[in-house]
């Protein structure tokens, strides 16, 4: 399927999040999105930009990231211009990041459709992804805040869900449906019910809307945040940017776009969903990372890195990240996770991979902030 | 208990063995005896020499070691003179090493009593150790090949056993008994029977005998080996050493002193045992090493190295050797063994510690001889 940029479409990439469950690969100075976690040769950020460039054009991508990551982002994305990277002085959650991008875009190019795609997700099936975005853009042009719902392949308790409803009936968006609501991460029983009903899909945090619609909802729902972001955007491309940021940014409400806009607007019937048919994962921890890697032997062992750096004897189902150049050897131990970096080593199990954040806390308590 | 050198006594320290079950700490170029495995600040070799110097005097210690280890041995034992280190061109097992020392000693100082103590064992209870050696020397002066039997604290299948008999009745050796025989490493059921009988003690490989008695038995039991060693010893302190070694050494029989002398002589009534009351361990693997280390937390976790280099979260009973300067972190994993060196990492379990040799084979098969 040939792809071409969608007229009047801009892609916003919030590149934030610390990825603490992927420590010690993911660090404060070099978080998850700056790493190649699939062995593809491209970092998650690069793969995200690669995926969006055909839809928005190279100059149609805006990356919103922390000031400390601007240099790394620009180095990884040489095709993205300096003014396409918006530095945040401090993290203010997704509504501020996406709202800032919307307000800056509106000042620069007028009312356009923006799609927001997190920098740290993995997507497979390029053609299906593009088809979904095309549909979402049409639904957005019809005035909807539009999300893409991912087919829930298992009753995951790690994701939020989108509850779909009746067909949207918008030209160019044949599969889109109305959204009845969003849910937080459910417990296991609820997740199973969701799956059985066939009405729920995973919320991948993809939101597509015209800037005027999005900022209009924001003005209704969170007027102070809206006004602050407008002030910052007005000053953005002027010598006043730093002064206004210093004045306004620290006081902005920290809130996710889901809570600020998607949920209340869905309740009022203003949100649509396009059912995505592509593969998607948020690579939350070393166990979910393992699912994205090819097996390195007959027992399902996975290696992120050079398989020649790992020697196993009677060890099945391990996940090894040999990232220090040393040889990692496993003897008679199953389902172990070994992450080997030049200054820190993590040994845990696949079953405990979701709890790596606790190790990050323990390392901080141990007085080794330098390792985080 | 004050200690003083025993007149006419010499200590022989065979410093060999690769310690493959302690890889990757123990390496071909730097085997087990060259490492501090107890956190005492002294290597096993140094601790052995420290223990023997009061009994034999600094100049009464002979170390028999491989040519490639001579420099390291001399560096670790500055008090031991150059002619007290006997280099072996290749490993020929313990009979050749001890027999060479005996023959060299006999040429240098005449008939003396020698005691052989491996360089890679750990002894606690200095006064008890010295008392045992004093008794063993008296039994040796009475013409016996004398061993020290260690109180078997558990039905170990990792050690050979000495079967004791009636009292020896030699002045100065009140606790010595006749030895009925030696056994190979037993199976678990046999080991339990040994323990229950009260007649068996662990064979620590300590042998004390006068050089004339030892070499006489060797001449009877293994005449070719005896003659070869005599030829080498005759040439040792002459310009002919290298030539004779090159001619004779490669053809010497590889056999342990247990099989060559101790077993056949015991059958003929010529072996005695002094029951040792000191603590002894051969530090065969990372699990037995753990038993020698103080606990680093309430759950029996052990660290050989700096405890500040290890962070544990819900991890009990681990053994960690942080030998690369990096921080080792364990999350939700019990009884794991993590050995962290600058070029190789081993992750296994305490239960599998005895099988580390298999990893050494696997690393060799992997083409990484450089890591062994």
> How many domains in all of chain A?
2
Taking the sheet with the most strands of chain A, its summary is:
5 strands, mixed, barrel
Overall CATH class of the largest domain in chain A:
Alpha Beta
Number of helices of chain A: 11
- Largest inter-chain interface? A-B, 35 and 35 residues
Oligomer classification: homodimer
What do we call the CATH topology of the largest domain in chain A?
Spore Coat Polysaccharide Biosynthesis Protein SpsA, Chain A
Q: What's the end-to-end separation of chain A, in Å?
A: 43 Å
Report strand order across the widest sheet of chain A.
6-9-7-8-10
Short description:
Chain A is an alpha/beta fold.
Q: Could you name the key traits of this structure?
A:
five-stranded mixed barrel; alpha/beta; Spore Coat Polysaccharide Biosynthesis Protein SpsA, Chain A; 11 helices; 2 domains; Nucleotide-diphossugar_trans (chains A, B); homodimer; 372 residues; 24% strand; globular; four-stranded mixed sheet
SSE inventory with pairings:
The structure is a homodimer of 372-residue chains.
Chain A: E1 9-15, H1 44-56, E2 61-66, H2 70-76, E3 85-88, H3 93-109, E4 113-116, E5 122-124, H4 126-141, E6 145-150, E7 161-167, E8 177-183, H5 188-197, E9 200-210, H6 211-221, H7 223-236, H8 241-248, H9 257-267, E10 271-276, E11 279-281, H10 286-291, E12 302-303, E13 310-313, E14 319-322, E15 327-331, E16 336-340, E17 344-349, H11 356-365
Parallel strand pairs in A: 1-2, 1-4, 2-3, 6-10, 12-14, 13-15, 14-16
Antiparallel strand pairs in A: 4-9, 5-11, 6-9, 7-8, 7-9, 8-10, 16-17
Domain Nucleotidyl transferase (chains A, B): 11-292
InterPro entries (chains A, B): GMPP_N, ManC/GMP-like_b-helix, Mannose-6P_isomerase_type2, NTP_transferase_dom, Nucleotide-diphossugar_trans
Pfam family, one (chains A, B): NTP_transferase
